[in-house]
Design brief:
Elements lengths: L1 H16 L3 H18 L2 H13 L5 H27 L2 H5 L2 E5 L1 H10 L3 E4 L6 H11 L2 E5 L5 H15 L3 E5 L2 H12 L3 E4 L10 E6 L2 E6 L1 H9 L2 E9 L7 E7 L9 H18 L32
Parallel strand pairs: 1-9, 2-5, 2-8, 3-4, 3-5
Antiparallel strand pairs: 6-7, 8-9
């Protein structure tokens, strides 16, 4: 039954993904505008995050950025359906600019393994497809709670990436698999800006605020000696749909055995990417919900709970 329902979802996704780009853009903008008008959870959380992370913005500039963030969020949803249900060759042709590709080639050739830190910025599904076109890779992910969602996700990523992506569930066996991949000189992809479970992270500055930060990437880097790169596919402004592939070297300190220093370097890499195109970062996530023990700081989203 799960596979059948996943097939129905795939058919609906394919229908939306085959709309002409102007229609997709209009649909994405409308979804973002509707979220703002309704005061959805995503919209109010995004606005609070902008208040916390970018306090220097004038109210008018913050409102304009919030409006663009929600439009971008809507477009991201529609674009991902397009990328999941169209041939990879056509998707990769949307990459009109490439920056730092030589860094990836050199890291892969070195044979010490490569960790690609891919923040929730731009379109990370297109980045997955670009990486899969260059080399097999293992990506760490949290399986959806729904069996239908799990079947759908495996279907779309298998179709898009020709099974060159190995989806590794989070957990002990999965982490050991990542170590083996790096030891063999392979490539591992990790979303570095997800809030980890209690006990699996440390607090480190992110936009000047202490944020609970994963330690997995830092430990993988320190133990394996693999090269760490930050990467994303940012949407380019213009009438058509086009992206810029951007690959950056990780900040110094990412391999530091001091886990707090390494986590700070990790957040610095994510922040640099988000500041470059702030409307394309995923601000809809409660990144600052957990507060340092003993700080006395309240959860900054508590007053939003009654609204959404």
């Amino acid at each position: 039954m799960a596979r059948f329902l996943a097939s129905l979802l795939y058919a609906a996704a394919a229908a939306a993904g085959r709309l002409p780009w102007p229609a997709q853009r209009a649909l994405g903008n409308a979804l973002g505008g509707l979220a703002r008008a309704l005061g959805t959870r995503e919209s109010v959380v995004a606005l609070r995050n902008l208040e916390l992370a970018l306090p220097g913005l004038e109210p008018g500039a913050r409102a304009a950025l919030h409006r663009e963030v929600m439009r971008t969020t809507g477009r991201q949803m529609v674009e991902t359906l397009r990328l999941w249900t169209r041939p990879p060759a056509g998707n990769l042709a949307l990459i009109a600019e490439s920056h730092g590709e030589d860094l990836f080639d050199a890291a892969l050739a070195a044979g010490r393994g490569v960790i690609v830190a891919a923040p929730h910025h731009g379109n990370w599904e297109l980045l997955n497809q670009w990486l899969a076109a260059r080399t097999p890779l293992a990506i760490l992910y949290k399986p959806p709670e729904s069996k239908v969602g799990e079947a759908f996700l495996r279907r779309v990523r298998a179709d898009a990436d020709a099974a060159r992506i190995i989806q590794v569930p989070a957990g002990g066996p999965g982490i050991r698999q990542l170590y083996r991949t790096l030891k063999d000189g392979g490539v591992v992809g990790i979303l570095p800006d997800q809030q980890p479970k209690a006990g699996d992270g440390v607090f480190a500055p992110f936009f000047g605020i202490q944020a609970l930060t994963m330690t997995l990437l830092s430990r993988l880097a320190e133990r394996s000696g693999a090269t760490v790169l930050f990467a994303c596919c940012e949407r380019l402004e213009g009438e058509g749909l086009a992206y810029a592939l951007r690959i950056d070297a990780a900040p110094g300190g990412i391999h530091d055995p001091d886990i707090a220093a390494s986590a700070a370097a990790l957040n610095a890499g994510v922040e640099a990417m988000a500041r470059r195109a702030p409307a394309q970062y995923q601000w809809t996530y409660k990144r600052f919900k957990a507060r340092p023990p003993g700080s006395g700081e309240p959860n900054p989203y508590l007053d939003l709970e009654g609204r959404r």
